[in-house]
Amino acid sequence: MDKTLKLRAALLSCLLLLALVAIWHVATQTIAAGDEGLDPEYAMLMGLSAESEKSGGFPTPAEFGASALGHLASPFYDNGPNDKGIGIQLMHSLWRVGSGFLLAMIVAIPLGFLVGMSPLLYQTLNPFIQVLKPISPLAWMPIALYTIKDSTISAIFVIFICSIWPMLVNTAFGVAAVRKDWLDVARTLEVNPLRKAFRVVLPAAAPTIITGMRISMGIAWLVIVAAEMLVGGTGIGYFVWNEWNNLSLNNVIFAVLMIGLIGMLLDLMFAQLQRKVTYVE
User: Fold this and answer.
1) Which of 147, 235, 240, 280 is least enclosed by beta carbons within 10 angstroms?
2) What confidence tens digit (pLDDT) does each residue in 116-162 have?
3) Which residues are registered as beta bridge partners of 84?
4) To the nearest 5 percent, what fractions of the chain are helix, strand and coil?
5) How many alpha carbons lie under 13 Å from residue 73 in its C-beta half-sphere?
6) Rounded distance, CA 223 to CA 98, Å?
7) How far is Cα 169 from Cα 166, in angstroms, rounded to an integer?
8) pLDDT in tens, 238-248
9) Angle subtended at Cα 214 by Cα 210 and Cα 218, rounded to the nearest 5 degrees
10) pLDDT tens-digit readout, 171-180
11) Are the beta carbons of 220 and 162 closer than 8 angstroms?
12) 206 three-class SS
């Protein structure tokens, strides 16, 4: 039954995709027909002139497919600062996200353990967490650029500051929610605190910790695009902004699709990890 359900869902997803592509095709054909009567000067101003090599208006599915195949055929070319393949841009973004996320893990998970196991520490740090957690990560960017004076490290700092809170809160919650009778058994057996943390608390809190990491990764990947638009240089966010300045909607749409696909793969990776550490009582 489960396999049948998955097969039906996959079939419906394919039909929905075909319907969306058909709507896209009809819409772009209608726009193209409407553009025929535009004033040439206005069309040129809007990037819709026939002579323009950068943009022919909103692309049709066929035009987009040809452009996407061109990007995928040579994803790692490097023709200078403003002309790099999509693979290079994604590698820069993933490196920044991975660096900031790893730093957040190093800080958030141990601190979350301490907060979850100590009601006093929780009450002490909770006001700071509640004040800092809702601040938009991009609000930190001007401060980071002024103090750090390096765009790459500033972007990593933004990833760090946006990734730390979901991991910290979920780790503290998971540790605090460990069943009391398990802790009582460990106390009865006189298990030392370090062994108790790794053999009792960590396995019990692991699903919640992974959930926090999954949320943090989603936020980090969301934020890096906007951060790279601000700092420039390299990365998928800079690629989107640069192609928009070039009036290349084909490339912008392709980059948006790649952002979504990479985000989905990262989420699936953490979902798989979460299934491996989840246990049935």
Assistant:
1) 280
2) 888 899 899 989 989 988 888 788 888 888 888 888 888 899 999 99
3) 78
4) 80, 0, 20
5) 6
6) 13
7) 5
8) 999 888 888 88
9) 170
10) 999 988 887 7
11) yes
12) helix
How many residues are present in the chain?
A: 281
Q: What does the block give as tokens for 274?
A: 């979460």
User: Which pair of tokens denotes residue 150?
Assistant: 């390096």
Q: Tell me how far apart the alpha carbons of residues 24 and 29 are, in angstroms, rounded to a whole number.
A: 9
78 DSSP β-pair partners: 84
Contact status, residue 264 vs residue 217, Cβ threshold 8 Å? no
Beta-carbon count within 10 A of 260 CB: 11
Distances (CA, A) of 95 to 121, 164, 224: 33, 17, 11
Q: Residues near 160 by Cβ (< 8 Å), separated by ≥ 6?
A: 100, 101, 103, 104, 107
Question: Which tokens is 180 given?
Answer: 């009391």
Q: Which residue has the tokens 């001007």?
A: 142
Q: CA 195 → CA 108, 114, 191, 202, 253, distances in Å?
A: 20, 15, 6, 10, 51
Identity at 80, one-letter amino acid code: G
Q: Cα separations (Å) of 75 from 68, 69, 167, 197?
A: 10, 10, 33, 45
Any idea which residue has 């608390």 for tokens? 201
In this structure, of 12-21, 49-58, 72-81, the range with the lowest mean pLDDT score is 49-58
- Structure letter (DSSP) for residue 190: T
Contact 164, 106 (CB under 8 A): no
